[in-house]
Amino acid sequence: MGIKKVRFETAKTSTSASVALLEQLKENLDKDASLREDLENTIKGIVVFVIDGEKWCLDLRPGKGKLSRVDSEEEGGDQADITLTMKGSTFVALVSGKIGSQTAFLTRKLKIKGSMGLAMKLQPILDAVKLKASM
To answer: CB count, 10 Å around CB of 25?
Structure first.
């Protein structure tokens, strides 16, 4: 009789991992003008991520290209073209490619409020996080 290895992820671990990935995206946008312009031209809107109850506003309107943490209820939410709500572990799985955005949506791990057209353009954002996070 052997000992089973059990792998689990606590909410705190997945939250810190998702925050680290979002911070990486922020850094990538700040440092890489080409990436920022490509995302602005593709998305042309405001994407709000609500991850484990914490809000992040990704402003990809032309000329903006920035990601910021939203501290109050009034910020970001009213002007969002799309709001994506999920657990930190789901965000990490999306970025790592372990789950696709359509699968996450269909299995109710990802909730989408707003433009479904923008929802279909999520992949370049996820790729922008992976771009330098894997290096």
So the answer is: 24
For residue 86, the cross-strand partners are 51, 110
Longest dimension (CA), the chain: 62
Q: Which residue type sits at 7?
A: R
Spatial contact of 125 and 39, defined as CB atoms under 8 Å apart: yes
Which pLDDT tens digits describe the chain residue by residue (135 residues)?
455 443 444 445 667 899 999 999 999 999 999 999 999 999 999 999 999 999 999 999 999 999 999 986 655 556 899 999 999 999 999 999 999 999 999 999 999 999 999 999 989 999 998 765 444
Report, in this order, helix, strand and coil percent for the chain, each rounded to 5: 45, 20, 35
> In this structure, what token pair is assigned to residue 102?
């359509």
> SS3 for 111?
strand
Q: Is 122 helix (H, G, I), strand (E, B) or coil?
A: coil
**Three-point CA angle 35, 93, 26, nearest 5°:** 30
